[in-house]
Specification:
The complex is a heterodimer.
Chain A lengths: L10 H7 L2 H28 L1 H19 L5 H17 L4 H16 L7 H34 L3 H5 L5 H35 L5 E4 L5 E4 L8 E3 L5 E3 L7 E7 L2 E8 L4 E6 L2 E5 L5 E2 L12 E4 L5 E6 L10 E6 L2 E4 L10 E7 L5 E3 L2 E4 L6 E6 L1 E6 L2 E6 H5 L5 E7 L4 E5 L4 E8 L1 H27 L4 H25 L8 H10 L12 H24 L3 H4 L2 H5 L6 H32 L1
Antiparallel strand pairs in A: 1-2, 2-3, 4-5, 5-6, 7-22, 8-9, 8-11, 10-21, 11-20, 12-17, 12-22, 13-21, 14-16, 14-20, 15-18, 18-19
Helix pairs in contact in A: 1-16, 2-3, 2-16, 4-8, 5-6, 5-8, 6-8, 6-10, 6-11, 8-10, 8-16, 10-11, 10-16, 11-13
Chain B lengths: L1 H26 L8 H8 L4 H4 L4 H9 L4 H17 L3 H14 L4 H15 L6 H21 L4 H17 L3 H9 L2 H9 L18 H17 L8 H4 L2 H15 L5 H19 L2 E2 L5 E2 L4 H31 L4 H8 L7 H14 L3 H7 L2 H31 L1 H11 L2 H18 L3 H21 L7 H17 L10 H12 L6 H12 L5 H5 L2 H11 L60
Antiparallel strand pairs in B: 1-2
Helix pairs in contact in B: 5-6, 6-7, 7-8, 7-9, 8-9, 9-10, 9-12, 12-14, 14-15, 15-21, 16-19, 16-20, 17-18, 19-20, 22-23, 23-24, 24-25
The chains are: A alpha+beta, B mainly alpha.
Chain lengths: 592, 605
Amino acid sequence: MRLSPEQFWTYSEWLFQHNGLRDGMILALALTILGFLVGYLVSVVNHGPVEGFLKVAQNIGQLFTVDIPKFSFRRVAAIAGLAFKESIRKKILVLIGIFIIAMMFAGWYLDQNADYPARLYISFVLTATNYLVIVLGFFVSCFSIPQDIKSRTIYTIVTKPVRPLELFLGRVLGFAGIGTLILLVMGLLSYVFVVRGLNHEHEVETIDANGKIGQTTLSNKHTHTFTLNEEGRGTTNEVKGHRHIVSKVGDRIVIGKKIDDLTARVPIYAKKLEFTGRDGEKNEGYNVGYMSEYQKYIEGDSLSMAVWEFDGVNKDLFKDVISYDLTISAFRTYKGDIVTPVGGIIYFRSPDEKVESERESFKVKEFQVDRRSIRTKLKGFKEGQPADLDFFKDIAPDGKFQVVIRCQDRGQYLGMAAADLYLRPADLQFWWNFVKGYISIWLQMFIVICFGVMFSTFLSGPVAMIATVAAIVLGFFGFFVDQLQASTTKGGGPIESLIRVPSQTGSQIELDLGSPALEEAIRVVDTWLLTGVAQLKNAVPNFDQLGTADFVAYGTNLFGGLLGRHLTIALGYFVLTSLVSYFFLKTREMAA
Amino acid sequence: MNNRSLTRKILYILLIVGLLLPLFYLGRPPIGGSGKIAELRSRYAIGQADLGKLDPTSESMKLATLGMRGIASTILWLRADYFKEEKYFDRFSATLNQISLLQPHFISVWQHQAHNLSYNVSPEFEDYRQRYEWVKKGIDYLVKGTKFNTRKPILQYDLGHYLGNKLGKADEKLQYRELFRNDKEFHKYFVDQGLNAVSDDSLGPDRKPDNWLVGKQWFEESYKLVQEGIPIKKSPHLLYSYAPLWQMYHGEAIEDEGILDERAKFVWEKAGREWKEYGNQELGGTGSVAVTLRSLDIAKQDLLDLKSKFVEMTQSVRDIVVNSKKTKIPPAKLEAFDKADEDRTMQEKMTAAEVAMQIEPTYQELASELPRDQRVKALELAADLRNAEEYYRTTNSLRDQVNYSYWEVRALAEQQQMMVDARRLMYEANQLIDVADIKGSVEKFEGAFVRWDKIFRYYPIVMTEDVGGEVLKAIDRYRKLADEELDERFVLYDFMRFRRAYDADYLDFNVEQTLADWKSKATELGSPEDFFNTPLAAAYRQATDAQTPSTPASETPSPGDSKPPMKEDDSPKADAPTQDAPSADTSSGAPATGNRPPTLENPGS
């Protein structure tokens, strides 16, 4: 799983240290000014400069003097109820049937031989749910108001003392309500699907003469080996992302329930990861030639090292043992010993580097979670002298400490990112993480509904749907626009693409139209168009970032901070769309 | 108003019907000579059912994309690339499955992505067992492809390569082969998919499926399809070479793993037989005439016979044609041509060569110059001669491309007990290095080298490829162990010189000529039975039968002797096997002159 450091900021860090609040305020201000200007211009066209200004001022004034003070939750609830009923009348619950059918046939598409079936199952259910409820969101939201206007049933509402804001909120909450109901059913079905789909049992296939080492029977296309300790307890090896508890009951060895695949690790990440080069100089880590720069590498048998700096680690979370996980990778410049993985050493030290633990060797377990631990009472060195240490007294008295990793094998490299080493004080229940994943999906659906209802206040149904789809596409594929702008993706902008597609000119070939002036003109126009699209993209929510399915699928607790940020963003869009809708409904009312 | 609306609707219906009629005509079942599309589909066997398995998963997925299959598959390709780049390999694999469901008959998808899985993703994993699993995923992907595309032998051909090359030639080949042998689930999977991977033909010496032999079976599956008339974009001589080659690689692999007895000889005997069958097979050449690789000698003799007949027939007119052609050459050039070679300058030598080419008469010119009553026969002969030349040239070229001679000789050599013993001693020497028994290892190497010397003398071509490389590596290892530079007295000194020149392409060493000379000398050595059953070999057998590990071969230097195995002397002795007979007392002291191993002829000396 790829985690960037900004994903594990706490809510307050994001809001204050990393300027979430400031940027939000600036965006709100910019949009307010822009909204005012656009509203004024439209008003000028209709009413002339002076009267136009007065009309705009009047509308803004009414918002604060009439519509907000006289806002009625009862009316909102009534409209929401109607929207809810209307959705049910439109047979929106059929979606649940579609979802059930998708579940029934999901087995056809899910790779039974996958190394980590849990990830595939969870990703599938979350992604399927996500797409379905987004589709649901824009279908229910885009057509409602235009339909009312077309059938003139809107007059039965607007002739009542219903405020535009109430109309918008009622619709949004009503549609969100039906969405929530569907999401609840889907969530429940998904959970059962995942748990049942992964459930399996093994028996003992073979056991050695001492009754300690054995192998399980084949089940779900895999077997395990296991080793029992003197007390007759143990676990199997990890296969397909899980282990089984093994215990001796009387004379019988019982392969118990599986662990590790449906989990929610609660990681504590370091605040910073720094690298040193082969001569001990600070650097940004080596790039071994991969396109992806997520992980950086340290060189083996040199002074090159990776240092994670932890801060504010609460000692109460750990009793006798500090558990931590490693997910680092290896890069070989030569094959070397094929059987033995590349090795490294790891040690913990105080920030002033005067106290450090003994160095512990490890072998890389690539693309797996290497579960490790050290004791809080440990052996180490104080200012170079061997000493018995207490982790939270000697190494991290104030919760600050460093973890150092070096690669032992000459000419080989170890690769790591900030999130590839984390402390693991506890695991949460999987079901709760699953619920949080669904909350993320709910937020996306909510934003889509807000956009859909907003567009429907001033556009006809089909056009509102296209606008909403455009916002969703931009939200999901905005990164592609960035790549086109930065030329990291070849092929040019819209006009160039229109020429390339029929002329079958591949994106890697320079466009040659025989006229440099024409080519330049196309490039200029494309740049303008792309800049425009990029600005639009910045105004819509980044659905790609709002997706949190990976957290659930990879068994990492979805941080409260991240969920809080997503909630804040959703709230921001809710306020924005409410205001835009309010003014448009006001305008329509005036026109009527 | 209503009338206009009705008229418009009727018009629309008529237009729709009008458009549907030709569609119906073209698309209906091929009954009574109509149904053009169905007929074409049937003729080119491109109906869904003809292409391969009809899979509900694939069909429903195609339908679910509502005609936007192209867009969906493009997005999936982009996602697959992203997943691979960011090392989300699980998802990468899952995405590939989806792509193949959307485009099940797009062969490049199966080929490209299977390669991605087996060759590009697998090396990303540090643990060789994980790497093996990803190689398997690529193979599995191709197997699925064969089900969707039953008329695409290229997939079976690729499977043959993956099973052989990827599992048997990778750096991890020992581990991969071991994992494959014991992978019962994978064997069962092959059986379920219609390939009997547990039949006798697939089993190695330990009675477990061997990757090379299972790969060979996949090649044979592709041959079956090709022989049914399904085309494959591969040259026949290359395509059909793989099955017997895989048998040979199987032999090589089991020998590398220490199976050095009758079982190995049997594998090579079978390989030799299959290679011979392949050599007798009619293969498409560059022209219209089918070529058999083993017919080279006959082709050469035919060519020589025809040439001599033609020369005899046209001898009388040759000077006339040559003189006539000379008249068209500028005098200055002729002057250079007429000079004696030693009197020519460099420029004149080049000019003379050019003139010689220009005045050389063609068969046509010579035949045309003959009297009318002989001309027709001569022209026929000239045509035959050209065909014979073409046949010979093509056969030779195809043989070179598959290295036919090398493998033919290699299969023979590997069946010699002497070669099996040479390999076994080398294998044991390497094992002893691992347990730090330097003395024992040196002895084993020395025992091996004298045997290699004999093998190389009889089968010089064996020096050229992998075997020569392995022996050269063994010599390097031996040199380090014995801590001594090897001079011209070393039994494989000439081989060393040859092989280094062969590898590095030395300008001052004519590799081709040296090899040709050695081959020529080898033909004088008599039958292999006679050559390898010399007193040397007999004495050697007695020594090994007695199982005296410290003295593996009586003709080798004694354990205490730090000197490498020596040549008898530096003079060429191409055919003196009887001189190689070891004396009875060699095991206790330095090698006596009379029992030193035979020298390798050095044509240059």
